[in-house]
């Protein structure tokens, strides 16, 4: 088990390096900076901090108590299957679920609130996929990993499945200009998913697939024109801070007006750029947060 975790970690880090290189060599969107807006929020708070704590919650406080109470894993429903069959089974079934839940999030005003953060980045790259609301992660990863444990799968399936998810998530969000031809009818890639993150009305209800593009083609939600999007992200203002992004999902507010009214929040905002710059080692002076309101926030509701 320890060796499998080391191997999957090495694969993931190697894949990150390869994708970063490809983004520099053949970018889908030229001129996108490596340290783009929100980079450190996505890397530190979403990828490292949130993932660490939610992993503890999901496995130790949700799945483990369920298994201890119902003892489903002792029934060993899939224990006798070869490991590769177990992995394939959970990858395909979970991807089918993700397609429909993702589609539901875009159709439901309530559940859109748990998904809009994922679409808020206006500069989409290999790291952008990590920006997901904590509630969205709790739902999806519980449904993803609970069956693996409760059905008695081999323990190595968990790190293998997690590695596949991470590798694929990095790939479909990567700023890489790739054309996969007919393979795009089967395997999902950047050319369809970067359109899904575009700020274009025609794709708000399209391209929901994660790993297998055939779900979109099969259920009539595929969109792949012969040109690239003009812009990405949400059509309305969205907070840039991790904590305010979660608050925004519960109660709408104008971030600029909130900054103008709150000296404490302005001090907090000034602290963040300084912290990120020290982490980057760039030695630049932090920029002051805006104190005057900008254009009025149009986010009084959700996209329909």
DSSP, total strands? 0
The coarse silhouette is globular
Mean pLDDT: 90
From the N-terminal CA to the C-terminal CA, the straight-line distance is 46 Å
Helix content: 40-55%
Radius of gyration: 20 Å
Helix segment count?
A: 11
Tell me the strand percentage band. Answer: under 5%
What order do the SSEs take from the amino end to the carboxyl end, as H and E?
HHHHHHHHHHH
Q: Ranges with pLDDT <50 over ≥5 residues?
A: 282-304
Structural class based on helices, strands and sheet pairing = mainly alpha
Explain the overall architecture:
- 54% of the residues lie in helices and 0% in strands.
- The chain is mainly alpha-helical.
- Helix 2 runs parallel beside helix 5.
- The longest helix is centred in the first third of the chain and has 32 residues, at 39-70.
- It starts with a helix and ends in a 24-residue tail after the last helix.
- 28% of the residues are buried.
- Mean pLDDT is 90; it is low at 282-304.
